[in-house]
Design goal:
By secondary structure, the chain is of the alpha/beta class. The chain is built from 14 helices and nine strands. It has a single domain, classed as Aldolase class I (TIM Barrel), CATH 3.20.20. The strands form two sheets. A six-stranded parallel β-sheet has the order 2-3-4-5-6-7. α3 crosses α10 and α9 packs parallel to α10. The structure holds S-adenosylmethionine (SAM) and FE2/S2 (inorganic) cluster. FE2/S2 (inorganic) cluster (FES) binds next to α13.
């Protein structure tokens, strides 16, 4: 793979990646390999301009309710994996979920994300009733994020009113995917994403940055995968090792690599919604602000009630686990102001969807 050796080449590479229908892997890898501080700032500033043109100044808020940490999965990176016997498990009752969504709505947010581990204990029909209940009581968009399920389950929830679904690909490197997800299949992950799109969900994907064994080439392939699949949302966050997992003691992902991946995803996908992820805010300093300045336009304040929030421990030192419910929404207002942006209290539908329907 080639290295960028001078400023002119750097700027030409950035321009090519921005204008190409399908940027080359070589160009993406070259940009992902940049380490010079002033060049990094140029990549982030370029992405920030694309964000401004395509998405405007508003930061969209999605209130997340983590309603269960039950999980059958064995993902090597995730603290919720079923082999973590130290984690006390919880599932919110239907009433608690409705109450939590009520809090999201009372803070003026118009999107709620209902997220959980991937558990066979989640009854598709009962969960459809919860979705129906939420949609009939509140004027909110509902995003689901409960993992790989059958097409029938996705269809049931869509029919009950769910609008969007998040399922990260995590990595497009199939060998790495297989090593990190024992008993799961990359093919089924793709099947799920295809079903979700066909069923009319605004579909989100994304990846983890800094997984042991992941190369810049693999990240470049992830970015092309996002572009080819025209996802409505793309969540990119650092891998943060959890002590009760197979990857305990490994190095965590680098903030700069996450920011480069966010920025290049913005430059390449143009108008996908990109969150400044909570994981990016959980790396010591709150780097979500850097994410917002490198192409991100979404944040996901936490509305999981105490004491459960602490028990949704995907990775250690997750930010905002002690704050009162709703505090994050206020805090994000301040963060937006500090960088000359504002909070957008709209539903924040996919711009890709609107484009497909003929307008923004
Ligand atoms: N069960 C659903 C699923 O798998 O899509 C949603 C819950 S899952 C815990 C949500 C996301 O957490 C995953 O997509 C993964 O990227 C992220 N995650 C898991 N372990 C992580 C870790 N150690 N560091 C950073 N992010 C992690
Ligand atoms: Fe949660 Fe600041 S975002 S308290």
């Amino acid at each position: 793979m080639k290295e960028i050796s001078n400023q002119m080449e750097f700027e030409q590479t950035l321009a090519r990646v921005s204008s190409a229908d399908r940027p080359s892997l070589e160009d993406l890898v070259a940009l992902l390999s940049v380490t010079d501080k002033s060049d990094l700032e140029k990549i982030y500033a370029f992405a920030d301009r694309v964000r401004q043109e395509q998405m405007g100044e508003g930061i969209l808020l999605r209130g997340i309710v983590e309603f269960s940490n039950e999980c059958d999965g064995t993902c090597h990176y995730c603290g919720l994996n079923r082999n973590n016997a130290r984690l006390p498990r919880f599932t919110l009752s239907r009433e608690e979920i409705i109450e939590s969504v009520g809090r999201v709505v009372s803070h003026n947010l118009k999107t709620v994300v209902l997220q959980s581990g991937e558990s066979s204990k989640l009854d598709p029909a009962l969960f459809a009733e919860v979705v129906r209940d939420v949609k009939s009581r509140f004027d909110v968009s509902v995003t689901l994020s409960v993992g790989e399920k059958s097409r029938d389950a996705y269809a049931l929830w869509r029919e009950a009113g769910a609008d969007r679904y998040l399922l990260k690909i995590e990595t497009t490197d199939e060998k790495l995917y297989a090593a990190l997800h024992p008993g799961m299949s990359f093919g089924n992950r793709l099947r799920c994403l295809r079903d979700l799109k066909e069923l009319g969900y605004q579909t989100g994907s994304g990846d983890l940055i800094g997984l042991p064994g992941q190369t810049p080439l693999a990240i470049a392939r992830d970015i092309l995968f996002f572009k080819e699949n025209d996802f409505d949302m793309i969540g990119i966050g650092p891998f943060i090792p959890h002590g009760q997992t197979a990857l305990a003691g490994q190095a965590r992902g680098s903030v700069d690599m996450v920011l480069k991946a966010v920025a290049l995803t913005r430059i390449v996908t143009k108008n996908a919604h990109l969150p400044a992820t909570t994981a990016l805010g959980s790396m010591g300093k709150d780097h979500r602000i850097d994410g917002l300045k490198a192409g991100a336009n979404v944040m996901m304040p936490n509305f999981t009630p105490s004491p459960y929030r602490k028990m949704y421990e995907i990775y250690p030192d997750k930010r905002c686990v002690e704050e009162p419910v709703g505090q994050c929404a206020f805090c994000i207002e301040g963060m937006a102001k500090s960088i000359g942006r504002c909070v957008d209290y709209g539903k924040g539908d996919s711009l890709k969807k609107n484009q497909k329907e003929g307008g923004r």
